[in-house]
Every structure is written in structure tokens, then in C-alpha cells.
Amino acid sequence: MTIDRFHIEMEDISPFPLERSADYSFWEETSFDELKENILVNLPKEKQKVFFGVVRNGGTFRLTDYYYRIKTD
């Protein structure tokens, strides 16, 4: 769980399987650890908070070259 600058906990998506896609037509699995180490570490806390909230609520969110979402069957 990450805490923002107001000491509010952000949504935790780490236990969920994640997917990413460049164009919505093909989704590939990705890990939260990979996402955290390569992309989230460089994002401002406010953008992280929005990302976690959108993805946790079933939406997709674009970071760099990919859209991310929780894997659905």
C-alpha cells in the first residue's frame, strides 16, 4: 500500500493479475512488481493515486506506451 502526500492510503492493486496493451486489441500479462520497478517509481504520487483508483475500479489507464488493467477472463 502506498501513502500519498496527505497520508491517505492509495488503492492496493498488487494482489491482482495485471494486463497491458498498446492498442486494446492484444492484452499481455504483466506483473505488478515489473510495473512498480519500471514505471510507477518515476510517477508523481498524485498520478499514482489516480492510476491505482482507476485500475482498481475496473478501468484502464495509460502509462507511457501501454494501457493497463486488471486481468479479466
Separation of the first and last Cα atoms: 25 Å
How many individual β-strands? Answer: 4
Radius of gyration: 12 Å
Low-confidence stretches: none
What is the 3D shape? Answer: globular
Query: Helical element count?
Result: 2
- Going across the major beta sheet, what is the strand order? 2-1-4-3
The biggest beta sheet is recorded as:
4 strands, antiparallel
**How large a portion of the residues is in β-strands, by DSSP E?**
15-25%
Order of helices and strands: EEHHEE
The helix content is 25-40%
Structural class by helix and strand composition: alpha+beta
**Overall average residue pLDDT:** 85
Quick overview:
This protein is of the alpha+beta class.
Structure description:
It is a single chain. With about 70 residues, this protein is of the alpha+beta class. Helices cover about 25% and strands about 20% of the residues. The chain contains two helices and four strands; from the N terminus they run ββααββ. A four-stranded antiparallel β-sheet has the order 2-1-4-3. A hairpin with a 2-residue loop joins strand 3 and strand 4. The longest helix has 12 residues, at about 45-55.
List keywords for this structure.
26% helix; 2 helices; 73 residues; single chain; alpha+beta
